[in-house]
Amino acid sequence: MAVPTAAMGPGSMAHWCSVSSGPTRYMLGMQELFWGHSKTREFPAHSAKVHSVAWSCDGQRLASGSFDKTASVFLLEKDRLVKENNYCGHGDSVDQLCWHPSNPDLFVTASGDKTIRIWDVRTTKCITTVNTKGENINICWSPDGQTIAVGNKDDVVTFIDAKTHSLKAEEQFKFEVNEISWNNDNDMFFLTDGNGCINILSYPELKHVQSIKAHPSNCICIKFDPTGKYFATGSADALVSLWDVDELVCVRCFSRLCWPVRTLSFSHDGKMLASASEDHFIDIAEVETGDKLWQVKCESPTFTVAWHPKRPLLAFACDDKDGKCDSSRKAGTVKLFGLPNDS
Q1: Where are the WD repeats (predicted)?
Q2: 73-111: per-residue pLDDT in tens?
Q3: How many CA atoms lie within 13 A of 13 on its CB side?
């Protein structure tokens, strides 16, 4: 049985995991689906490792950002990805990208060249380049589509008007900022930090609301469930913790990974959570029980994962060259799990 959340303080969370009473109907249904749809295919995308993958809101396109200073966009056609275009212009690595939350034609890239670029897939051109103060490493688009937040290596987060491309606000933090995200209601802004904390600001006021000690070590990534019920964090302690959005308490944690958790993604229905690290597998958990639903085998560490917004398809990218001497293995591939075994 699960421990009641009221009995848990943030500090005790990292040592606790839920145990379910048995597989749920949802888990059995998804496992049955994956038994016939467990194929992973890889698609050439870049000339160097891929740092970030993300789906457009309608699920028709997948974008990837790479160390080769470019972004690529693929069309999803039945059971394969077909490269549509390559997007060049950055002078340094594209470390993260994301799509407009409701416009499937726009995406934005964050680069170490101290700029962000907004792109339109209809024209395949850069709409605008916004100069920032530092080397950018993370980026997110507000749920209402009006603001883009970008964080740099100096722990400065810049808020940019998505329409006018002008600076709305800029915040210098005194802690190591890792990943950033708005909540689904667009009224709070979350930052994970190097001290294992989740820092919460009001939005748009950007006033400190709360800091939660979520993990005993570096809190690396954060993702919100599309239904608005939960958010998850991943940490250097190799744990994934699941949090109730309204109560801001940890409801369970997942402990099947052995290395720092780099990346997280919720499925479109909010019922599956994919997490990955340097372990040579991606863990897929059932959110409501914490149980292992599936495991995706990888040959190297995984940098980024992203569930399709409508289907049980998982895009991901690995360090293709890690520990391998096989020169035939190409760097810079994007991978897609959940395809029919006979495809």
Answers
A1: 43-84, 87-129, 212-246
A2: 999 998 899 999 999 999 999 999 999 999 999 999 999
A3: 31
